[in-house]
Design a protein that fits this description.
Number of strands of chain B: 5
Radius of gyration of chain B: 17 Å
Strand content of chain A: under 5%
Number of domains of chain B: 1
Strand order of the largest sheet of chain A: 1-2
CATH superfamily of chain B: Tgt2/MlaC
Distance between the termini of chain B: 44 Å
Distance between the termini of chain A: 32 Å
Largest sheet of chain A: 2 strands, antiparallel
Largest interface: A-B, 44 and 47 residues
Helix content of chain B: 55-70%
Order of helices and strands of chain B: HHHHHHEEEEEH
Order of helices and strands of chain A: HHHHHHHEEHHHHH
Largest sheet of chain B: 5 strands, antiparallel
Oligomer: heterodimer
Chain lengths: ~250, ~200
Amino acid sequence: MSRAAQTGPAAALLALGLLLAAGPAPADSDLPVHDPWEGVNRSVFAFNEALDRHLLEPVARAWDFVVPDPVETALSNLFATLRFPIVFGNDVLQAKFAAAGVDVARFLVNATLGVAGLFDPATRLGLEANDEDFGQTLAVLGVPEGPYFVIPLFGPSTVRDTGGLVADSASGVYSYFAPFWVSFAARGTDILNERSIHLESLAEERRQAFDFYAATRNAYLQNRRARVRDEVRGAQPPQDGVDEDLYHLDEDGE
Amino acid sequence: MQAPFASCLAALALLGLGAGARAAEKPGPRGVIEETVSAALAVLKDAKLSKQERRSRVQEIAYARFDFGTMSRLVLARNWNLFSEAQQGEFEREFKTFLARSYGSRLDAYNEQEVEIVGEQAEPRGDVTIRTRIQGGDFEGVAMDYRLRSRGGEWRVIDVVIEGISLVSNYRDQFKEILSRGGPDQLLRELREKNAAQET
């Protein structure tokens, strides 16, 4: 699944308005999916897919052809290092101080031993990256997820995560220390580079899907919810019983 | 918390053991995943094999280790009853082919280098989850969890969860959409088409 990226102020206003309209998701033994705007979302999704197929994917193929794999990895590490203020800020906002300490140590190690963030020696030293953003902070603070929402140009999100993206993009390092074209070029390179790393895997996901819209929506929601619970990259083991209903059918009279 | 060295040794030891030694005692859930993963990696790293051969061999590995009957029921959930007995049988056969291929192609596309077993968790009602992580390559650190269920003392995989995304849940949602549009006939037709397309 392509990674969602930053978005503009228009989306922020939209997100705020939508947040107020957001109702609770219906309870069900299936994954709760709240998608009242499915019609519009499907159109936007189709538009994003077309854009990817005709523009981003071909350019990413060219990029992948020209740029050697180790350079792609180094760039990916660099952009991860540049996201340090966002991860650190959200560690603190969620009162995860031990994690915040690890992220500071990671930043210091990778900025020095890792040659300005191009390599990731910190992970090998046992300092594993935390994965936090403002969308997750909002979730921890109890803000409801809101309806599923496909952002034009950027991809799957929810109303809550759209608000999170806006806040995170405002706190990125570029916005304060560099002119806008630097930030623009950096974002472009980041997106292109990530897309080129995911050429094979995303093509595979498309081939394996019966309804790629439903597959992407389900994957996005499952992944985000697991990340809010720190189950994917964080130290937390999956919580007992969170997804237990998925695995038991007739015997309990469903 | 982690014992990469120990699990490497365990994987090596398992690779070295012959079929005779393995038949003597049925492996626990962790052993099943160690065997599955190391067998799959050995195939994927074999440079002599073509892409097709690699994928079909991983498919064979999945056939032996996945509980497709349970997976079929879980993925259809209450919609299982929409299917006639003949349709249920056909669904199981087609879905088995599809899933085993899909597992092989995904492993191949995700370009796995090494897999480390990082944890094991007993679920409330008897299942066991084995947590693994991809080491090295573009997908360094990606979390891949296997949920297993025991039947007659034999542990088999009933779900694969990649980065928090359960395969069973994902296909359940997709199939629900298709069933609401065209019922069991439509879903079976799409499964057959998908399987036929993957053969070429």
